[in-house]
Design a protein that fits this description.
about 150 residues; mainly alpha; Arc Repressor Mutant, subunit A; 3-stranded antiparallel β-sheet; transcription regulation
Length: about 150
């Protein structure tokens, strides 16, 4: 039964990822770049280290994404007034527009994914997801103890 559930879960996750990738491609973005846009929309003026910490990504992968976003005029950087060694990143007006459009597109994907479920089924699904998360968290704790 675990194999069937795992395959079904992977198939759903794959379909969702493809739908999100398609949605992002409509706006000239790659998978993952939206996370930077969403973060900078909520917290403008972050350093590269702060973005890495918030998104749990490597400095190398973030550098490439920031370069692409900067070349597309979606983000800009400026020196910190208090520490000239520090570069702070924020969204341009175009970047803010793209973030908002992506949010709407992602909402549409989620509505497609969950729209067939009743309210009660959504509550039950959330309960199942939370149980799965707790199981994985217990595994992380057990592995840290070893």
């Amino acid at each position: 039964m675990f194999d069937l559930l795992t395959e079904t879960f992977r198939a759903m996750a794959h379909k969702q990822r493809n739908a999100l990738r398609t949605e992002l491609a409509k706006h000239g973005l790659y998978l993952g770049q939206h996370r930077i846009l969403f973060l900078l929309k909520d917290q403008p003026g972050l350093s590269q280290v702060e973005i890495c910490d918030n998104l749990n990504v490597t400095k190398e992968s973030l550098s490439l994404s920031l370069k692409r976003l900067h070349n597309a005029d979606l983000v800009y950087c400026e020196k910190d007034d208090h520490d000239k060694r520090k570069t702070l990143w924020s969204l341009t007006n175009l970047g803010l527009e793209k973030a908002q459009v992506c949010k709407k597109g992602f909402k549409s994907v989620n509505e497609s994914m969950f729209g067939e479920l009743s309210h009660e089924e959504m509550i039950q699904l959330e309960s199942y997801f939370n149980k799965m998360i707790r199981g994985l968290e217990r595994r992380e704790i057990d592995e840290e103890v070893i």
